[in-house]
Amino acid sequence: MLRDLVKALFAGRHEVEFVGEVEHADELLPALAKTEANVVLVGVREEALSPGEARILREPPHVRVLTIRDDGRTGDLYRVDAVRVPIEELSADTLLGAVGVEAAR
Questions:
Q1: Environment class of residue 79 by beta-carbon count within 10 Å: exposed (0-12), middle (13-18) or buried (19+)?
Q2: What is the Cα–Cα distance from 95 to 38, expressed in whole angstroms?
Q3: C-alpha–C-alpha distance, residues 9 and 98, integer Å
Q4: At what angle do helices 92-104 and 2-10 cross, to 10 degrees?
Q5: I want to staple 80 with a disulfide (CB 3.0 to 4.6 A). Which of 1, 38, 62, 65 is the partner?
Q6: Partner residues linked to 84 by β-bridges
């Protein structure tokens, strides 16, 4: 359900384009190489990235990883330079602002 809400939020936004979706984490790196995405959206249970999720930041192509925790209210944006941008209260404005500003860098 959260996946559908996030996709609906970004629908029609010129600054964000969904270029792919995978069901399993092992499909992620090949999908990134194929689509040339620069931001990955990942649902997580913990506050920190798992070792497998953190690997996305180190492997080419280098991307930003936007996480949304299970409660759907908070998340983080990770960049290759290992900076974590806390998003304290997820809303359309904060989510679009975090991704838009970071994707432009």
A1: middle
A2: 16
A3: 13
A4: 60
A5: 62
A6: 78
Distance, in Å, from the CA atom of 14 to the CA atom of 9, rounded to the nearest integer, reads: 12
C-alpha neighbours within 13 Å on the C-beta side of residue 8:
6
Q: Which residues contact 65 (CB under 8 A, 6 or more apart)?
A: 39, 40, 42, 49, 53, 56, 57, 77, 78
Higher pLDDT among residues 83 and 56, named by residue: 56
pTM, two decimal places: 0.61
How far apart are alpha carbons 29 and 90 in whole angstroms? 26
For 80-105, the pLDDT digits (tens) are 665 677 888 888 888 888 877 555 55
The DSSP output letter for 40 is: E
Q: Which amino acid makes up residue 70?
A: D
Domain assignments of the chain as residue spans, ordered by start: 2-104
Tokens of 22: 């995978």
Quickly count: other Cβ atoms within 10 Å of residue 64's Cβ.
23
CA distance 50 to 37: 21
